[in-house]
Structure formats: C-alpha cells, structure tokens
Amino acid sequence: MRISIGQIIVVIIILFLLFGDLQSAKKGLLNVTKQINKIFQEKNRKKGT
C-alpha cells in the first residue's frame, strides 16, 4: 500500500483536532510511547523468566 503525503497531512490534522493543542498532543504521544515501551518491557521480562 502506498501512503501519500496528503494522507499523512489529513491524519495529522485529525490528530490535531482530537488533541486540541500541540502541547497536549505531544503529551499524548509521549504517554502512548511510554505505554508501548512498558508493554514491550513486560513481554521481554515474561520471555526471560
């Protein structure tokens, strides 16, 4: 599947409208990345034991 620049811009606009401000969007992205990292760390720990 090809992802065009227009689709990326539309997704960014939708995210901007959902989160409201850029600062809250950055906080939301940071929270999401932290949750993803926690999930990966938990999976790695489970594999290790």
Order of helices and strands: HH
Helix content: over 70%
Low-confidence stretches: none
Number of strands: 0
State the separation between the terminal residues, measured CA to CA.
39 Å
> Outline, from the CA principal axes?
flat
Main β-sheet, in a few words? Answer: none
* Number of contiguous helices: 2
3D structure, described in words:
The protein is mainly alpha-helical and 49 residues long. Helix content is 86%, strand content 0%. It contains two helices and no strands. It has helices at 5-19, 22-48. The mean pLDDT is 76.
Fill in the keyword field for this structure.
49 residues; mainly alpha; flat
Which helices and strands appear, and what pairs or packs with what?
Elements: H1 5-19, H2 22-48
Entry summary:
By secondary structure, this protein is mostly helical. It has helices at 5-19, 22-48. The protein has one domain (5-48).
